[in-house]
Amino acid sequence: xxxxxxxxxxxxxxxxxxxxxxxxxxxxxxxxxxxxxxxxxxxxxxxxxxxxxxxxxxxxxxxxxxxxxxxxxxxxxxxxxxxxxxxxxxxxxxxxxxxxxxxxxxxxxxxxxxxxxxxxxxxxxxxxxxxxxxxxxxxxxxxxxxxxxxxxxxxxxxxxxxxxxxxxxxxxxxxxxxxxxxxxxxxxxxxxxxxxxxxxxxxxxxxxxxxxxxxxxxxxxxxxxxxxxxxxxxxxxxxxx
Length: 241
Prior knowledge:
Order of helices and strands: EEEEEEEEEEEEEEEEEEEE
Mean pLDDT: 91
Structural class: mainly beta
């Protein structure tokens, strides 16, 4: 009994947003205790905070102390902070895009007096995400050399296939799958067996002989099939996958 491992990686392109704040201090005293809180609301409705529908990265501050209450912008200088954030699937759960306002609250202290300013919001549009169902198919019987006969039987290629269906409302863009050559990870009896990928097919059409398959965009309800043709040095049967 031999255990075989094939490492695969499926990737697609997601859309992210960037928010940026620039502070210019034209005064004679520094701005201290700077704190910035990003706030995201449904477009035209600032009654319910919807930050939990987004993954908001840490600020990338270009000034001393950051934006969590310790920031400083010295007199006659400027500072910039930027946030990268991405919508979760719940931000656009249906077929229609959703619109949001992205603003925030700025607080700072000058000469012991704290000031709070609501940042004027900008609008973003969040489009529905793709949702991918991935199913694998593997031929059970492999025909190749029989170690119990004197002659060497030829290896007959067999297929491993993956079918990817987009069940979401959005398009999966720049879909790619990278696969590695099969690796034997368990061979208790030390059998002289090896597996090799010899061909790749995309939707049953042969593509360039590479381990990286570019599937392009996969729209809602669409399906793509990738098949890898393989050979094995010994005959046998797969009993689990």
